[in-house]
Amino acid sequence: MENSEGVKIESTVVTEEPLISALDIALFVVIITVAYFWYFKRDKQSSSSEKKPYTIQPSSLSSIEQTSNSSFIKKLKSTGRSLVVFYGSQTGTAEEFAGRIAKEGARYKMKGMVADPEECDMADLVEMKEIQKSLAIFCMATYGEGDPTDNAMDFYEWLQNGDADLEGLNYAVFGLGNKTYEHYNEIAIYIDQRLEELGATRVHEIGLGDDDANIEDDFASWKEKLWESVCSHYGIEETGEESNIRQYKLVDCSEVLPERIFSGEISRLKSYENQRFPFDVKNPYLSKIAVNRELHKSGDRSCMHIEFDIDGSKMRYDTGDHVAVYPKNSSELVDKIGELLNADLDAVFSLLNTDEESSKKHPFPCPCTYRTALTYYLDITSNPRTHIMKELIEYASDPKDQEKLKLMASSTPEGKKEFYEWILRDNRNIVHILEDLPSVKPDLDHLCELLPRLQCRYYSISSSPKVYPKSIHITAVLVNYTTPTNRVNKGVATNLLAQLIPTNDELPQPTIPIYIRRSQFRLPPKSQTPIIMIGPGTGLAPFRGFIQERDYARKEGREIGEMVLYFGCRKKDEDFIYENELQEYVANGTLTKLHLAFSRDQPEKKYVTHLLEQNADELWNIIGEKSGHLYVCGDARSMAKDVHSIIVKVVMEKGQMTNSQALNYVKKMEQQKRYSADVWS
Fold first, then answer.
1. Which of 243, 384, 466, 631 has the fewest CB atoms nearer than 10 Å to its CB?
2. Cα(514)–Cα(310) distance, integer angstroms
3. Any binding-site annotation on 429?
């Protein structure tokens, strides 16, 4: 036997050792006790489990979007489908369009499925020819500076670097872009051309949707002609049958335990209570609001300086990056929907995909309450698209309301005109539609299926991690405006942020989910390189970080290059944001020159573009003679375009070039990252 220290001891009096020792008896008692409790506990659990009703277990986006098999070809073959619609989506619109195409395929005897290229082995495209009368459609958005969306990046690189033989693949492409940006629909155009180069057959010409105009109209018009081309190519006819089959079915989750119900988390259940690094789009960090102060000195508009506390989060950012903020809808609008539809917003439910082969089991984290879905997961403030008008028709009890919805859902010139005027021009959201068409009473679960996902909002970071490693600063204008129907529409994110005011007492500080999105908007690698920054209004935001970083380098004793800032606002005494900071940087030599344009402080309006035209020599000296960098931040629709035209003109005149040579020079600056833009429309 062994002693308590584990050292073996030989027994010298064997005959005197008892047959059953005290230790043996003790062990026997323990075993009997454990067996007794195990048996009766198991029996109790067994009987209770028989009484327990079936419940839906919560699923997160990670499980929603995972697939056990990345071969979409096998799924097509095993389910008798011939149509696959891929999407490259950053905000959900491309995914929505893909779903609508796949659903309409049934009208043409083409059973369809929607696929995320990030989850698929796209090399399987070479096997599409094995499926009779097959078709692959690509709804692809262009993002940033002509980049693919995050979920389409691998597919894009596969096309660039591979040389697969795609002969026998039939395809069509619809692009989602914005004409105010230079790289309009660049990704869709590339994919369309590259597929043809690899031997695929284009069934229908590429469609280009412009989000700055009416992308819904662009898509509807292209889709209508797409099916005409499909019928012609495959020798098939439209069945005329409208597919009203819902994509998701309602599951009652009233018996689900409270701790298994989502309450606003983006992905993982209870992720805000148990935070785990790394933080990203599916796992945001719940940041405290450390500072929230007003930047405008007077007037009826508001601009907020907000600081997010990231101390202890392990999050790191670079100057020029963006921060994503997850908003929530106002309780007033959410309650209004419940009131209009006479619905119990606190009922717990789940929406389960009727397509068992789909990797997307739920449209948003389920189970949850209707209140949670409408508050955190669904976009209830944007203009609904035509397919929602179509789905609402069956819920209208008044013939007049029904006819109005039918008209707006149609692709006729009259229908498009009505949709534009009543929805887009008058800026109606789903709440307004339900108010103005009182007989329309959709089932709330169906409405939740139809509405798009609520998206995070991106802001240029207005601080430098060298100076503020434990916080992220943003500069945001409060969005409020009156619509033609005399309703006040409020920006979802900025109105939420305006309410999150930190307190000085021991009360819990307000929080909001965030994550960092990397950007290509970067200072030159060498601190000596001269730069020009053009940022009117909140376009100043990233340049505040640039200036802080150069000021930090100067204080460290490093040589810094010229920094020239062009800033503009309405009135010096009203909305000149960060005035004291900027004047201090001028005084200490970090900011070489500060050019200011106050548009309404004199009879004739004066903008930063006027100052640029006046300072052609300075511009050319920095970007031409000293090979400096030029940065633009702000409105893409007019300001950024005007700046680009002025720069080309300056290069022509001061560099003594032709228009073509000047355009090529500016293009080369962009390729060398010497001309960078961080703009929005």
1. 243
2. 10
3. no
Residue type, 190: Y
Distances (CA, A) of 202 to 167, 195, 295: 11, 8, 54
Report whether 600 belongs to an annotated binding site: yes
- Give the distance from CA 557 to its chain's centroid: 41
Q: What is the pLDDT of residues 501-513, one digit of tens each?
A: 998 877 889 999 9
Q: Decide if 246 is inside a domain.
A: no
Asked if residue 494 belongs to a known ligand binding site, the reply is yes
Q: Is residue 150 part of a domain?
A: yes
Helices and strands counted in the chain (H then E)? 22, 23
* C-alpha–C-alpha distance, residues 111 and 76, integer Å: 9
pLDDT digits (tens, 9 = 90+) for 373-404: 999 999 999 999 999 999 999 999 999 999 99
In this structure, the dihedral spanned by the alpha carbons of residues 652, 564, 470 and 679, taken in order and rounded to 10 degrees, is -30
DSSP summary character for residue 243? -
Per-residue pLDDT tens over the stretch 452-470: 999 999 999 999 999 999 9
Task: For residues 633 and 639, give the distance between their C-alpha atoms in angstroms, rounded to a whole number.
Answer: 9
pLDDT at 21: 52
181 is in an annotated binding site: yes
379 is in an annotated binding site: no
- Residue 540, Cβ neighbours under 10 Å: how many? 26
Q: Is residue 29 part of a domain?
A: no
Query: Does residue 412 share a domain with residue 379?
Result: yes
- The DSSP-derived string for 528-552 is TS-EEEE--GGGGHHHHHHHHHHHH
Q: Mind giving me the DSSP string for 288-355?
A: EEEEEEE---SSS--EEEEEEE-TTS-----TT-EEEE-----HHHHHHHHHHTT--TT-EEEEEES-
For the chain, the domain total comes to 4
Domain that holds residue 173: 72-234
Strand order in the sheet with 471-477: 457-460, 322-325, 511-517, 285-294, 303-309, 471-477
Q: At what angle do helices 639-654 and 659-671 cross, to 10 degrees?
A: 120
* Spatial distance between the Cα atoms of 40 and 171, rounded to a whole number of angstroms: 63
User: Same domain for 102 and 193?
Assistant: yes
Residues annotated as catalytic are 460, 633, 678, 680
Cα-only R_g, the chain: 31
Closest CA to 381 of 487, 531, 534: 487
259's CB contacts (< 8 A; 6+ apart) are 270
Would residue 383 count as lying in a domain? yes
Question: DSSP character for 8?
Answer: B
- C-beta of residue 173 within 8 angstroms of C-beta of residue 86: no
